Amino acid sequence: MKIYSWNMLFRNRELDRAFDFIAKSDFDIFCLQEVPETFLTRLKTLPCHIASRIDVERLFVNGTIRNHVVILSRHPIETQSEIPFPEYWHLLPLRARFFVWLLRPFGFSKIRNRGGLYVDIATPAARVRVFNLHLILAQPAWRLTEFENAMLKRDPLRPTIVCGDFNILEKPHITLLNWMFGGRVSDVLLYNRERTRLTKRFVEHELVNALAGGITHPLSQSQLDHILVSHSFSLQKADILPDRIGSDHHPIRVEIE
């Protein structure tokens, strides 16, 4: 099976090229984050099965913009369930709210109604549970909680694939965002700590990070984007695709048996 994951950026200005890329990809499963509402309508025209949930609602002065997490599958989707994430705005310190206001020209805003998605897919070999997650860009403790809440929905006896943008910041030039969005000073200075903790949890959940050590987001110089697979799969190939197609994230792809 070939699995793709991509945060396509809700402000993507190359939507025609993005649609062409997805439509022509040789995927069995394709997980997308930050899918614009109008683009979701286009995805529904593809000859495959589709499941979606609101990724986030962005509250701007002139209205609300809804983005979606989407799972495309060449194989039948038997069940679909949502994973609501907590609301954090009321927990953010004043510095975080000011930072969001300051970065409005770059698409930052107050947000609500975030969540993830998981489905059961009937592949020729087995019934596979696939997760699509877009974890919060805020303090590391909240990201870890969201990941663990999602993993409560995992069936250890069922082959599992976990895709998404985990927003793990692991380089000293970018971890200041952890503090700006409500974290501790140690979340800035101990810039490898979050990656170490999450890697340990991946192992404990018996999941393999297929692209460990890769850089999927040029600005952060970090592996934000992940495809995790359970030990029941044999990992054949893992790629970070060079063309970002209007996004700030590279699409990623793995091939498993």
Describe the structure.
- The structure is a single chain.
- This protein is of the alpha+beta class and 257 residues long.
- It has one domain (2-256): Deoxyribonuclease I, Chain A, CATH 3.60.10.10.
- It is 23% helix and 35% strand.
- It contains 7 helices and 13 strands.
- It has helices at residues 15-24, 37-43, 94-102, 140-151, 176-180, 186-189, 193-204; strands spanning 2-7, 29-36, 49-60, 63-73, 77-84, 110-112, 115-122, 127-134, 160-165, 207-209, 225-230, 235-240, 252-256.
- The strands form 2 sheets. A 7-stranded mixed β-sheet has the order 6-3-4-2-1-13-12. A 6-stranded mixed β-sheet has the order 5-7-8-9-11-10.
- Strand 8 (127-134), helix 4 (140-151) and strand 9 form a beta-alpha-beta unit.
What would you say about this model in short?
This protein is α+β, with helices and mostly antiparallel strands.
CATH fold-level label: Deoxyribonuclease I, Chain A
Overall geometric form: globular
**Overall pLDDT confidence:** 96
Strand elements, count: 13
Helix segment count?
7
Bin the helical content. Answer: 10-25%
Would you identify the CATH H-level superfamily?
Answer: Endonuclease/exonuclease/phosphatase
CATH class: Alpha Beta
Could you name the key traits of this structure?
about 25% helix; about 260 residues; 13 strands; alpha+beta; globular; 7-stranded mixed sheet
SSE map:
Blueprint: E1 2-7, H1 15-24, E2 29-36, H2 37-43, E3 49-60, E4 63-73, E5 77-84, H3 94-102, E6 110-112, E7 115-122, E8 127-134, H4 140-151, E9 160-165, H5 176-180, H6 186-189, H7 193-204, E10 207-209, E11 225-230, E12 235-240, E13 252-256
Parallel strand pairs: 1-2, 8-9
Antiparallel strand pairs: 1-13, 2-4, 3-4, 3-6, 5-7, 7-8, 9-11, 10-11, 12-13
